[in-house]
Amino acid sequence: MTTTAATGATATAQPEATTREQRLEHGLDVLGRIDGDAGENVLAALSDVSPELAHQIAAWGFGEIYSRPGLAPRDRQLVTLGMLTALGGCEPQLRVHLGAALNVGLTPQEIVEALLHSAVYCGFPRALNATLTAKQVFAERGLLPVATA
Question: Which helix (H) or strand (E) covers residue 11, if one does?
Answer without folding.
Answer: strand 10-11
